[in-house]
Every structure is written in structure tokens, then in C-alpha cells.
């Protein structure tokens, strides 16, 4: 396990580290007794059982919580938060714990409130495609549930086997289908949320349109559990497409990849459901650590294109015309197409498993950047030149269709000199091009102090006011999302 | 002109009326002098010129403002609001003044802040399709600007010739393309907003993804100018489709219309861009008042279906197969299809001009209801039975694809007895089916006190806290959106 961030105290030299512990109360025997009565058998204090909930998926942030609560109902969450609010106890809400910015694990001894037993589908309407479920449903389970009913989830991401829909909504997860179905801000129709003081906000509407007052649910989408705990979600699900095709293509330059994207948008139009990329360095890591096979000729860049439509013949015709165009104009050097589920899955895994392959390289410095699409790979190349031999790998992959680059820099172990060469350089570069320093991962613990690179002071101050209004004691996911200093 | 709502004082019998005037300051000569220096020639006090800004489009709500300000820049808006905030002067922000709930006109003597001269496109990126413009741009002008560049606006509505994009965003306008491109909560990427005290919030991002802190722009989408004045918008625009087809069909029952909708979603899939309906009563009014011609055999229900796609041959094939299916199964009794722009426009006007036709009937009681789609016409039929001869017309039209019914009830003139028979009956009915009492029109002045039919008290209380945080003096669009009593 690499070095961990553990209550180090943030400093100008290390703004991603944890700040000093705030003066929350400690969990007492009386508090534990209350929880054990409320949640018999679901109040976990065994350190071995707590271990995995205290550490993030990347094993880079570790907390020291002594109690993990596993409520099953909204009412139980409400009672937990009322108790914690009255006693000034800090709480870390946790879904599948697959976040990449240290947002889902405690920093010190926050009580972990896990949604893992809140995993029931409440209703599904197969006319409207509206699903209502508890927050702890695993994304892949929901996908399977819907596919049996001829629908799909409007989002999909690599962590689907573990992540919870509540966590997806809390972090405004993007993923692989955003290009087609838009963000959760549009597809989430309603939320049930427990506020810091235990009040239950029932805004679990199942309507496509509702303009009655302020849209409160938006406050809880993407606020990383700092304003309330999402306990149930209603979400609009698209029909399962009748035909899905995946093409895996190679390009010899990023410029050619961008031109391919332009052709793709014009010729595939409304059936385009994903346009993703990885570079040659990602492919090497997939081959090296996961023993995956590159299905085409080696290229500097690889593209995954997915189409999803209602007429297989039409879709294949569009895809064929597109491929002919980009092959004859030499924009694409080689490629393969899959229409069969197993092969589709195999091609997708080349894109989806890059994050996993990187974890085998030692320590990974991860950046999730939004930029104008024509700039996204310049940052990777610039960073390679800037870091030289200091970094083991500098790789780029991500969502071309969304202008979203995942820049990853690896090193055999945690390396403060390397970090100092990357940051704030990467943030300054992004800010100069009016990009976002966190496109879809959120800010969590690791990125909170960099918010000013993407948001003006007035905006951050207003965020602080919202936090103070909804969680005046600051007990919900402290040390996350908002910077240590609001100025 | 029918009877107007003019500072009547809301009562349990008339909750849609205006409450008593709040103790805001009056506009003094000193205030006027300040405005005249700031906005020379753009500080309007001539009562004749003020007339049209004091009355809503439906001519049902009239204020008595004595000054209309026409700023050109965000800085001017900021100075206006700072001045008003310091002096406790109430302000009514106004776009194209096409709202249907009395949200865009003053109730008493609020200063009218018009965005009509803030009509400049700031940037347009023809790779990403991201448009940034001032809030006062007229929707149709933006549509024309984009069409010349091979893009379209993600929203379209009957009032496009007058409504402003800032007003569209402030009211979270839905309209005719929501089914395809989703709501403004997803397509609006950034906003610039002036807060009540004059502070400028610059969140005019042009990125598809940005998860750095709370998404503040959502607070201003749909809050009807009560939390801030939107001065600029950036919005993601889809490519102009290569092929557009419109079909106008007749159905003999609403059940058959719903079955047609199910076939349509399955067979047209991703190319479906609108599924709208009107009933036979609407058609009669179009013929009577606007001299429009019904292009098909008389039917109890009419459907407008639009497809928009990237391949004309494929789209026509899909549409043809769909029409054959619904004609042979007798779901549809008659129909006509248009591919040529003039004919498309003519067919669309049958749906778009219903609102206008209704204004010729005398007084119209307008309801904009979201319901599960299979219930939407039950409300119209139930209301006809309930009202009997009291109403001149009870008509239904709207967005089937969004479960959104426009229920309109006409009367030769304003009729308190009729109103008492409609309300709260219509709201209770809607609430019973967990619908929304305002799907896309907002609450404005007329519907504010009915919010509890669609939102729980806890939610309304939180809305009140947000209002108090952002506009502690309550100067921004008072008497609108939030109910008179927050309990």
C-alpha cells in the first residue's frame, strides 16, 4: 500500500492533505448504545470489519473511524443524523466507496454511514421508464434489473459493479453515456434526502417536468454528501436500444482523432452513444498488468465508438459509411467492429479497465480535467515534456465527446518532488484554458483547496453560505468539497 | 381587456390574487436622477411607454410601475441592483414578458428591469456547439443565428418570436424539444447572474462537465428572477438535423393516441423529436379565430410527430414503417406528412397557435399540469363533467412525451363562480395523482399559493431559507414563486 493521507494538516505545500481535526465530539458508549438499539447487528465496531470502509479504493486516503452504521430505511438515517446533530458528531456518508478524490472515507474518526443495505427497488414504471429506488442500489444491479424490462440506466461507468446510485448522484457521476443521455442533473427526477438535523426532504417526484418553486434536488446532486444524505432516487431511464455496435479504431495522431470525431458526429448523429479514447501508454499498461490483448495494429491513439439505435440495418449502414469515409481518408489506420455482446464487452474493457491497470504501477497522481476538446491532449504532451524522467508514466484517456481528459501520472511510490512538479502546474494550465480541474470526479478531500482555479471567490463564498444554511454544525462529510479557507 | 389582478390582497377565496404591498421604498426624484445618469435615454418614465411592460401577455395581471430600466451591460445591472438594495426598492426583472403566470410584470410599483437591450451574442464555438450570449437575446433570433451555422437551439416554444433566453432560463422553459434534448438544467452550461445586492456571480462556464463544488447556476434556473437576475447564458446546442419530417395524425380516442405513442417510441426511437397533441376543441378554435385549416379528416384527437435525424432515407423509412403500422392497426384514422419547410411550419402552427386562439375566447383559466401520461386526458374529461355548462370551453393540448397537459377553460369574461368550481378541484385532482400543478409555466404571481399541492412543507420552508440567504430584503420579484405563508 502506498503512503496514505492521514490527518496531516493542509499547508500551502500540501493543500490536498487533510486539515487538523475540527472539534467534533467523540463517539461515547452512550452513543454506541443508542446506535445498537436502533440498528441491532448493523452497528459495526470490529476494527477488521471497519478496515475496508476506512480506506478509499485507490488506497491513498485512510481514516480512523471506529463505527460503521448500516441503516436499511430512511427513518433510520433520519434518527442517526438527528442523534449526531444533537451531539455534534461528524458523519461520513459512504456508498460503494469507489470515489477517486477521497470523498467517501472518513478523514479522522467520523461515523461512517453506509447505504449498502438500502438496496431495494421501490417502483419501476415500464411505460414512462421511471425507476425509483433506494440510494444503496449497486449501479450494475439496477442495469440488470432494467435490461430484463427492456430499459437501461442513463449512466454507465467502470465502477458499476460496486458503486451505488446514491453515490453516483451525490458526486454527479458522468461516465460513458453522458454524451447521449446527458447528465444526472437532467435524468434524476426526484430525490429523498435526510438533512443534517434529521429532517426528511421528500422530493421523490416521478415527473419529467415540475416547475413548482426552486429545484431543491439540484443542491444534493454533486455536493458529495456535504449538504444531506440521499436516501432514494427517481431517475428517467431510456429504452434499451434494439441494436448496439462498438468500433475500436486506431489513429496516428490526436489531430486525426479529432477529425474522426467530427465525421462521427455528422455521420452517426443521433445513434452515437459514446466516443472515448485511450493513448498507446494506456494500452501498454492494459497488456502488461491485465493481460488484455490489443485487437488492432499498434497505434498512438485508440478510439472506442458506440452506437445505439432502434433499427439494426440503419445503424450498420451508418456505421459502415462512416468507417469507409475515415478509412479511405486515412484518418483511421486500423479498426474492428463488434455487434455481439461478448465481443462488445471485450472492446469496452479496453477503455473501462485503464483505471484498474494504472493501480498496478505504484502510486498514481490522478487528474480529471475538462477542456475545450481540441486542447485535451496538449495537456498530456505538455506534461510529459514538463516532467521528463521524473514520472514513470504520463497517460491520457477519457471522454472525447465531453471534452474530458483523465490525465494520470505514475510513480513507483508517493513522490513529493514529483507532486510539486505537477501541482499547481496542471491546475494553472487548466485554468488558463478556462477548463475545470474536476470534470466528473468531484473535489472530495484531495482537490478541495484547488477549487479557486475553476470557481471565482464570490461563487465559493456562496457555496459556504449554502453549507452553513443546510448544515450549520458542519457535521456532514467534513473536510470535503469546500476549501479550508473561504475568502 | 378582461378583469385584471391588481393588488387585491390574497385571501383563502382568492389565493391567486396579489397580497398587500410590502413596505418597500418609493422611487424618488433622487433615485430617478441616479438611473438617468447611469442609463441616459434608457430610463423610461413615460406612462404610455410603460403601459405594455406593466401588463402581462394574457392581459390578466397589471402592475403600476413608474419606471422601466433598459441596461445594456452586466455592470449596469449590478449598479441598478446595488442602488435598489441599499434603498430597499423592489425590482421586477422582465424578459420578453411572455409568461403565463404573472411572473414577469410588477404587482405594484416595482421598478421594471428589462433585458431587451442585452441582446448580443458573446461567442459561439462551432466545434462544441456552445453558445454564450446576453440574457435579452430573443429565442428566435438565436435560432436563426445558429441555423446559419448548422446548429439549433435545444429548446423551441410558441413564444419564440418574443421570449428572451434569460427568461427561458429563469422560468426553466420546457417547450417542444424537451423530449429529445432534455431540460435546460442539462443544456445550460453556465450563467452570469447579478445578485440582489449587486454582486456579480460569474459562472459562465462553457464546459460540458464541471464538478467543482456546488452547481450554483441551478439555483437561478427556474427561480423566476426571485434569487438573482440572469445577465448571460452559455448553452449547449445540438447540430442542425440533416432531415426533419412532421406528421399530423388523427386518432379517435385518447387510448389510441397513447398506443400510437408507444409504437412511436419503439419504431422512431432516437429520431423522435416531438410528440404533441391537441383535441378537437382546440382545432375548432384554430379554425374559428385564426382561420387555420385542418389538413386531415375531423378527429377527436390530433397528434404532431416530428422526427429529426442525420440520414433522410433512414428517417423516411422509419417514419413510413411506423405510419403503416399505426394505419393498418387502425390506431390512426387519417394523417399527412411534411418534409418541406413551409408545410412543416404550417403543421406546427396547428399546435403552436392554440394558446393564441384561446385568447380570442374571452377569459382563459390556464392550467399546466404534469401527470403520469396515461392520466393526462382523464383530467380534461373529468373537468368537463364537473363544470358542465359553467364553462364555455374545456380544452386539452400539450406535450404527451413529457406527460404535460395544458388544460384551458374559457369563459366570456372573468367568472368567480367558475373559478371556485375549478380551484382547488384541479389542484386536488393533480395532487392525488402525484402530479405537478405547474409543469413548465412556473408559479409566478398566480400559482404561488398552490405550491403545497406539489411540494411538502419542509421543501417550501427550505426554499424560503434560500430566498432569505440570497435576497435578505426580498427586493427581487416580490410576491412571486414563493407562497405568502411559509409554514
Characterise this structure:
The structure is a homodimer of 487-residue chains. The longest helix of chain A is centred in the middle third of the chain and has 17 residues, at 312-328. The relative contact order of chain A is 0.12. The mean pLDDT of chain A is 95. In chain A, helix 9 (254-268) packs antiparallel against helix 11. Among the domains of chain A are: 121-236, Uridine Diphospho-n-acetylenolpyruvylglucosamine Reductase, domain 3; 243-354, Alpha-Beta Plaits (2-Layer Sandwich), CATH 3.30.70; 361-441, Alpha-Beta Plaits, CATH 3.30.70.2740. Chain A is 33% helix and 20% strand. The radius of gyration of chain A is 23 Å and the shape is globular. The first copy, chain A, starts with 28 loop residues before the first helix and ends in a 17-residue tail after the last helix. Chain A has helices spanning 29-38, 47-54, 74-87, 139-147, 165-170, 178-181, 184-187, 217-220, 254-268, 280-290, 312-328, 341-352, 354-359, 376-387, 416-422, 425-432, 457-470, and strands spanning 43-44, 68-69, 91-94, 111-114, 121-125, 130-134, 188-194, 200-203, 229-236, 243-251, 272-279, 301-309, 334-338, 363-370, 393-399, 404-411. Chain A has a seven-stranded antiparallel sheet with strand order 13-10-12-11-15-16-14, sandwiched between helices. A five-stranded antiparallel sheet of chain A has the order 5-6-9-7-8. Chain A has 487 residues and is of the alpha+beta class. Chain A has 17 helices and 16 strands. The interface between A and B is large, with 88 and 88 residues.
